[in-house]
Amino acid sequence: MASSSPSKKGRSAAGRATPKGGKALGRYTDPESSGRYTRATPSSAKTSPRWWGPVMLGLMILGVVVILLNYLSVFGSPSGWGLLVGIVMIGGGFLMATGYR
Description:
Layout: H1 31-34, H2 52-71, H3 80-98
């Protein structure tokens, strides 16, 4: 009692879900035209300027130095402004670090 109907839903009598050749009857679109593909960035755009790294590290180190000198009372009594300036400098260095290549 062999039946010629497919045993599983969605399969043809030959046991394939798609026709031979692997394409699903006109439904395929290449990744670039469908928006799922991003071209590689050219290598010339992947480098930061030579001054980027030293300025980034300089801001971070100088921010730490400003905070230390503020709490060592070099600028007078410790103030919130010295702390704020140091934190802003460190933050600027970190922001530059996110764009470094």
